[in-house]
Amino acid sequence: MTGPTRSGRAMLRLVPSTTEEACPSQWFCGHCGAPPPDNRTPAPPARVCPSCGLGLLLEARADVAPRPEDAFMIVDSSLHVCAVSSACEELLAVAETDVVNRPVTELLTPADAEAAGPGNLAAAIMWAARSDDEPRRVTVRPANVFGVRMPLRVGACGPPRAALLVLE
Amino acid sequence: MELLQHFGAKTCAMLRGVARRRVRAPTFVVVRYLKTSEAAALLNVSPNTLRAWERRFGFPRPQRSPGRHRLYTHGEIAALRDALLDGLSISSAVSRAREGLGADTNALVGALNAFDGGRADAALEGALALRSLDRAVQEVLLTALDEVARRHGTDSVQWAFAARWGNSWLRRAQRLVTPAMRPVQIVLGDATRDDLDPDAAYVRALELLATRAGARVLGLSVRGVSNMAEALAAHRPDVVVVAGGALADDAVARWAYAVRLAAGALPVAVYRRGSQRARVRTTGATILPSVPGEAARRLMELASGASEQATPTTEPTARLLADRA
Known about the structure:
The complex is a heterodimer of chains A (168) and B (325).
Chain A: E1 2-4, E2 10-12, E3 25-29, E4 57-61, E5 71-75, E6 81-84, H1 86-92, H2 96-99, E7 108-110, H3 121-130, E8 136-142, E9 150-158, E10 162-167
Antiparallel strand pairs in A: 1-2, 3-4, 4-9, 5-6, 5-10, 7-8, 8-9, 9-10
Chain B: H1 8-21, E1 33-35, H2 36-43, H3 47-57, E2 63-64, E3 70-73, H4 74-85, H5 90-113, H6 117-130, H7 133-152, H8 157-175, E4 185-190, H9 200-212, E5 216-221, H10 228-235, E6 239-243, H11 249-263, E7 268-271, E8 285-287, H12 292-313, H13 316-324
Parallel strand pairs in B: 4-5, 4-6, 6-7, 7-8
Antiparallel strand pairs in B: 1-3, 2-3
Helix pairs in contact in B: 4-5, 5-6, 5-7, 6-7, 7-8, 7-9, 8-9, 9-12, 10-11, 11-13
């Protein structure tokens, strides 16, 4: 910020940051959920998970990032599935290779179809995949399965930016 | 022509010389091949990871060297590396890399539909930069021809152009293949109608791929029957293939009988004929898979088995004379 000095010349002055507080982040494998060795940030061309070799390492806020045994999936801003964890494959009885590039609504449906605002699954995914870092919670059920409700944690991950859906 | 890499610089230079001398010869880009360790290093993964991807995603799909080692095309690995750089998962990266490779077929179909032979040549040349000749023929050329036939029908002018272009390309490629290096001789009886026969390009492809696999292939139309003994005395086949289903069974039977009289009882294989159709009798004949690459592999196994059996006991010249008598 600039301000006039006694001589009338503009000068730079330190002001309190207007950006958000820094949040701790966590890298995890998009398939097995395992963190990289020593929690080191991987080099861009070396993002393949050294543990399972079947997923790319992604970064998310520590309070959103999944644990290795969690069921989770990565969805892009066009609501298409980009990755499915091995636990999620078992939980939803699907294979990652079959559901990649399919709409997420073929796998998960909002338990409350009329929910609006933050409770809306599509909106939560869009916010996470496009702009909002704040995690949200939605209740969903597997598509074509009734009577099952699962809490879902939706947050941002990347790079490139996408939504991380963790089934709790 | 990735096999060039296995045959040394002299052969490469010789073949390139041949290619330069021919008018409108197909332009072959020398496909760069990577060993498993090289491909793994390029992708920053371990060789085991690369093999795990092959099992799980079927991609990248390597060729095999004569020693059965994996050989990856540089184009596939480069496409996958680029997709991984800005991908969210291996699955989506593989999917994107595959889409990129599938674009060649669409480009070729577009060129054929536009009656543009030069663009079609360029599209196939582009495909050859990413694949071996065998895979480019099977995955791009034949797929594109099938697509043109499906869209417009085999009585359309589009098909007339595409079929002639495809067969012509395959014949030009056949002329540039390295000479036979295995003691396997095959006689291929062509029972297709003409270039507009939908099976014709597959038969050309089988001939090309068998030749590339190291066999010496003598292609004969089943319409020619007289003086068969002269052809077979010069060629001495290990296996006979009847390929194509356009000509009547009588014509094919006459040709097969002439071959048998001239060369004796030989293993017979049938390709894209009857396999396919229940009414055709295939007593004692091997039905080859309709994919030319697999058919060529099966044919080589058949011919190698026959030549190994025949070598210790059979004297070819004596056999031919006896049969002719």
